[in-house]
Design brief:
By secondary structure, this protein is of the alpha/beta class. It is built from 10 helices and 21 strands. α2 runs parallel beside α7 and α8 runs parallel beside α9.
């Protein structure tokens, strides 16, 4: 069992929540292909650049009073493992149930607070006003999510430390919506990753853990350019002992529970070669790959002792995401990584979405499904998940 982290911690003195790539590193990334990612509108590029320049490292002490990152590195043994919780898609509505988001997540918050770092994928924006990407389009085929910026504080209170921004809903309300979202996350000391060339670093017990998010879009770090992605992971590895890669990839829906070989497409959109990308990230130095996007659970692959979790399904989807059947099977995926980045042990905490809100599932449906999918999709390399969701090398 991992020791629950202290709820008392503070970011470094400037109060922001991630570390962007340096100017020299960005030039190096462009030389191997990242330049293609930056061919977006001038305004989007300005938003990403402005947000990245303002960020710094988050420090999480092992317990007791907060202390500086430098002190944490000096006092904490480098042999300590790090526990990370990962959940899938979080799509918030303007008013998440009459009780509010924090109260809605209260039944599952104790699980998430048992990890050193809790992360998830934020679909949509935390913003007000602006023009929806669906304006003038048929509502049946377009979805844009917007919720109050104050919900960032409720996500923080529920136990989240980092949210992925590399996904197809980051620009639901244009550059203004994205800029407001990033400002809200910084205001509540939530780290984020997923912008082009961005590396977010969170310290747990004084140990630096880098997060890099990828999706198949020009306004994110791209998973369509594997060499450039590997270069970014190698740069992150120079900054942190552990590198966690987040991917928003793959097809969507109940027909997408299996991880295919080769490229995945959805509605005519190239969603990347998920397997090839994940394996390349581990080869480049990633300790783990954590996935979202399909809106259903997928299996967990064992790549030389490094876990690749291809999808954790939906986590919050009240009045936003479809539910029922496989779409309501959800999980908190916990992994504990050894100092060398390989898995020490893990667990699938099974959840069921009730009207889009997660609740613990005593039937362990998600754990059973993940065990089956892992065995079927990766017969030569998977972790054996037991009936309670526990797995280890």
């Amino acid at each position: 069992m991992t020791r629950a982290r202290s709820s008392r911690w503070q970011p470094d003195r400037d109060g922001f929540a991630a570390t962007p790539a340096s100017r020299h590193e960005r030039r190096r990334q462009r030389s191997v292909g990242v330049g293609a990612l930056l061919l977006v509108t001038a305004l989007v590029a300005a938003v990403a650049s402005h947000a990245a320049r303002q960020q710094a490292t988050v420090t999480k002490p092992a317990g007791g009073s907060p202390r500086s990152a430098r002190a944490g590195r000096a006092r904490v043994p480098r042999s300590r493992p790090v526990t990370i919780d990962w959940v899938g898609d979080i799509a918030l509505s303007p008013a998440l149930t009459p009780t509010g988001l924090e109260a809605a997540l209260a039944p599952v918050a104790p699980v998430m607070r048992g990890a050193d770092i809790t992360a998830g994928n934020l679909e949509g924006t935390l913003s007000v006003g602006g023009v929806s990407k669906c304006a003038g389009r048929s509502s049946s085929g377009c979805f844009a999510f917007q919720a109050s910026p104050t919900l960032a504080g409720e996500l923080r209170a529920a136990g989240f430390d980092l949210l992925n921004q590399a996904n197809n809903h980051a620009l639901d309300f244009g550059p203004s919506g994205q800029q407001q979202t990033l400002a809200a996350l910084r205001a509540y000391h939530l780290a984020y990753t997923g912008l082009p060339g961005q590396i977010a670093v969170v310290r747990a017990h004084g140990i630096p853990v880098a997060f890099v998010g990828f999706a198949p879009y020009p306004y994110t770090a791209s998973l369509l350019d594997i060499p450039a992605a590997q270069a970014l992971v190698r740069t992150a590895r120079l900054r942190a002992r552990l590198v966690i890669v987040i991917i928003h990839a793959g097809a969507e829906g109940t027909d997408a529970i299996h991880v295919p070989t080769g490229e995945e497409t959805f509605l005519g959109e190239n969603r990347g070669d998920t397997r090839a990308f994940a394996h390349a990230m581990v080869s480049a130095g990633a300790a783990a790959v954590l996935g979202s996007g399909p809106h259903v659970l997928r299996g967990i692959e064992d790549d030389r002792g490094h876990p690749i979790a291809y999808s954790a399904g939906n986590f919050v989807g009240w009045q936003t995401l479809g539910g029922g059947g496989l779409l309501s099977d959800s999980a908190v995926l916990r992994i504990t990584l050894r100092p060398d980045g390989r898995l020490r042990d893990g667990r699938v905490y099974s959840l069921q979405l009730n009207d889009g809100v997660p609740r613990p599932d005593p039937e362990n449906t998600a754990a059973t499904l993940v065990a089956t999918l892992s065995r079927e999709d990766f017969p030569a390399g998977h972790f054996v998940v037991d009936a309670a969701g526990r797995f280890h090398p």
